[in-house]
Amino acid sequence: MENKDLHEEQESGRGAGLVDDVDAEDSRDEFEIQLEKTLKETEEAVLEVESGGSSSDQSVAWNIASEKVHKFRPVPYFIWRLSNFVFTKPAGEAELTEGHVFGLRRLLFAVASDPYMGCGEKTNKVRAALKSSDADVIAAASVIHSVCRRLKNLPHERIWNPILEDALLRARIGLSVGKCSKEFGPGRAMLAGFSGRIGLTILIAQGDLNEAREALELLATGASIRAVGMKVYKCDPLQVSVMVLSAAGCGRNASFGTLSYASDNPLERVSNDEELLWLSAYVVCEWIRTGGVTEVDAEFFDALSIDENSKNELLEESKLCVRRGHGWNWLVG
Predict the structure, then answer these.
(1) To the nearest 5 percent, what fractions of the chain are helix, strand and coil?
(2) Nearest CA to 201 among 246, 247, 155, 234?
(3) Labelling 220: which of 7, 174, 226, 271 has CA 20 to 30 A away?
(4) Is the pTM of this model over 0.85?
(5) Which residues does 90 contact at the CB level (< 8 Å), separation at least 6?
(6) DSSP 3-state of 333
(7) Mean pLDDT of the chain
């Protein structure tokens, strides 16, 4: 299929809306209870690991992050069910049926038709689409698309949109990272990359204009993402990203593995192999994006089973991606 035709298909799908609202009112009420419970459990578990639950400063920051994500509601219930079904299983073990993608047919076709996520040819049959894209890629794309749609209803787009673009670029890099790792997979790595900037994007979008301007000014001076978040919003953007993963149904390993990046000794922080994989994908995406890949501990590449040849190929592909952009504008609208 020509790229022009693919672009037109994706654009037409976007215009019609890629996701149907299929949650009934009783499902929404059920999900509200589930969401509040999940965020509270994650907050308490993280505090227990970080400080034995005794740090008031950490408690306040996590409470702010939890409230921000609860208000934002990153995904509807039917996407949470899909994500939870896929990401709580070992990589490659989830098999999707037509029932799993109910309400997501147009998004599924766009994912399957995408040259990076799918086969790159026009796909408009559900069974064919499910064969063209991995289950974790479909689930990750559904989560990312839902988050982007939520953001579109919030103010200060001129300020947060470039940061969202960076989050999507990191997700695109993550896709390439995950394709090198059968143990982890491309969908999980997409979310690991996306987590690098989506927390700050949400904080800016939910704050007021003065906060948004202050955040932008601090970033322009070279302040770290964490420093900006703590100064302006009283929480670390990574805390928000972790809560987004939790609220999106990605499971404890996703949240705790990603959070380990904030530790002075992240490799000592992880408690199982799955957490190590999430941490490793996050680190590799971060360093590839910032151009410091030579400083990455070899253990992160080893965890993902990325050898030297695959690493070099990944770097070359990522350089092209950074120059050309993520190519996923259809995923945003």
Answers:
(1) 75, 0, 25
(2) 155
(3) 174
(4) yes
(5) none
(6) coil
(7) 91
Q: Is the pLDDT of residue 5 over 50?
A: no
For tokens 């994989």, name the residue: 277
Cβ-contact 8, 135 below 8 angstroms: no
The predicted structure's pLDDT at residue 26: 63
pLDDT over threshold 90, residue 55? no
Residue with tokens 């559904």: 142
Task: Give dist(CA 100, CA 275) in Å, integer.
Answer: 26
Tokens of 249: 């149904």
- pLDDT tens per residue across span 269-304: 999 999 999 999 999 999 999 887 677 899 999 999
Helix pair angle (157-179, 186-206), 10° resolution: 170
Res 60 pLDDT > 90: yes
Q: Dump the DSSP string for 165-192.
A: HHHHHHHHHHHHHHHT-TTT-HHHHHHH
Tokens representing residue 311 in the block: 């690493």
**Residues 273, 270: Cα–Cα separation, whole Å:** 8
3-state secondary structure labels for all residues of 121-146? CCCCCHHHHHHHCCHHHHHHHHHHHH
What b-and-e string marks burial along 95-108, b requiring 16 or more CB atoms within 10 Å of the CB? Answer: ebeeebbebbbbbb
Q: Please name the helix (run of DSSP H) or strand (run of DSSP E) that holds residue 58, with its range, or none.
A: helix 56-72
